[in-house]
Amino acid sequence: MNLKQELQTLNDKLDKFRRKLAAAEKRSDPTVVIQFKQEIAAITKRIGSVKAQQTRELSKQGGTVAGLKFSRVLTKAEQADMGKLKKSVKGLVVVHPMTALGREMGIKQVTGFAPKEF
Prior knowledge:
3 strands, mainly alpha, elongated, single chain
């Protein structure tokens, strides 16, 4: 399971436990309340570790892409015919500013990274 799916699953479980905790508090069932508080704490800790792992992988990928020798902003025409551009430039990596990688790298425009000039 990839990190995104795992994070979604954990968030779903957290939501379910919070709803069950609210129901247990409404019934005033102290043993069940304690159990769900422990479950919520464990899930919250796991969510934090998965998010940290996601951030590490994103930073690693950003470093790899930024390490390519050549980069430049892509024109609107190049963006419109991305398939042709990718076929003509070997090893081209296109980063959009609205993706997680783009936000991590801090780019403001669609940028292409490649091992050689294009």
